[in-house]
Fold each of these.
Amino acid sequence: MTWSTASPASTLATAPLMSPRPLPEPALASADPRWAALRARDPNADGSFVYSVRTTGVYCRPSCAARPAKPENVAFHATVSDAERAGFRACKRCKPDQPALAERRAELVADLCRQIEASEASVGLKALAARAGLSTFHTQRLFKAVTGLTPKAYEVAARAARMRAQLEHAPSITQAIYGAGYHSSARFYERSNAVLGMTPSQYRAGGKDQRIAFALGRCTLGSILVAASERGVCAILLGADAEALVGELEARFPQAERVVRDADFERLLEDVVTLVEQPERAVRLPLDIRGTAFQERVWQALSKIPPGQTATYSDVARAIGAPQAARAVARACAANTLAVAIPCHRVVRSDGNLSGYRWGVERKRALLEREAAQRSASARPSVEPAT
């Protein structure tokens, strides 16, 4: 091998001129999955990214109401800091460098909720509106959009929660009633069964004198416990350890009389197992549902989701008329003690992934896969035998 002795200068002088290789065209923003959220001005995407516009030099939230920019002028940034390091300034319209409007509204309503919870006397809508700095109309509408309840309904639920706490510590039931903010014992007794699921004396005694029948069984998801009061099924619990399920039931009704199952209860247990194993069979159970007004609205909405289908927490929030209450919906799902009868397993995250489940995510996945398979099988056309 011989080495060239030409000097660099002579080499450059004699080498043919080469045109520079063209740089690849930058990908248009419209090819990015985030473009769809930008075009839809999706408020649910706020906080997950911001976008900048080259021609204006500003960056915005996905939900910004500004006139849509052309995709060739748009770039996406994971954070506000990334956009500012790239030389862009915050949009004065959507204020992406400040907490999102939904967050500010949630904080405002949370403050009103704390005021209601801390007050033993009734807090009127006018007082709440004055605290919020809004009209009574906008305060009512905003409160319901975030919590799913009107301020009055939330006050009723908060008073019921105080009543349950008072019954555990007050010297007498009468003192508990007035300590919780009820102005007369007669008014409370009218709603005591709906509020407590039993009489005040029974609740105070940990369910004493209340008859709770229960039975343990097995299903493909492990152990299953079914308990029923005189009003209907009050608990359906799933788990790997049967003794742990009994302990959970005892913690809910520590003084209740637990009754040995009979033949009728055997049939009830079989119906519940059928809900697990064959969800396409519409088994109707008498239910003793115990929750707040908001929880009961959520659970009622869950019961309308057909087997084999799912809904997001936001879907459920919209279904009950509280589009901003997705987190409260998630808490109501977590509070459900009637597995499969109230199908909280059919609620998933907005990205389709499974979130927490009271009885374990793997059981949730198994239930959904079984329901999807049975729905698919029932949708297939039957094949007539050849003649």
Note: The beta strands are 50-53, 58-60, 74-77, 89-90, 211-219, 222-228, 233-239, 257-259, 311-312, 347-348.
Amino acid sequence: MSLQISLVCMLCGDMFSPAEAERRTGIKLSKGNEPGEIAAKGRYKGKPYPHGCAELREPGESLISLEKSQVVDILTANIDTFRGCGATNMWIDIAIGYNNQCNLELSPSFLTRVASLGIPVAITCYESDSEEM
């Protein structure tokens, strides 16, 4: 049995500036938009985004284990800076791809680290089409 694990943190807020967050932390964010920026696609296409939003992603394709999450480390060190840049809505998305059966164990140390952030966590499990698992 193998798992593919990805972990992403969404950072959003009416006045959240991904560019300012990157400048202050030196951390590269993905899929960012500034509040008021004109959207090129999606539901706001041709209109200004009403908020700023970006993703903080794990480097690489898949985590070996949640214990090794660099996103949680980065959040722990920088959550106050992200809030200072306007991030008022933050959450962690964990996606688990599996073959045959999905058993996920969360260690007390991982749960303690994530709980200390004070943000929601969503977990999605899906059956993977990959034969390489």
Note: The helical segments are 18-25, 70-84, 108-117.
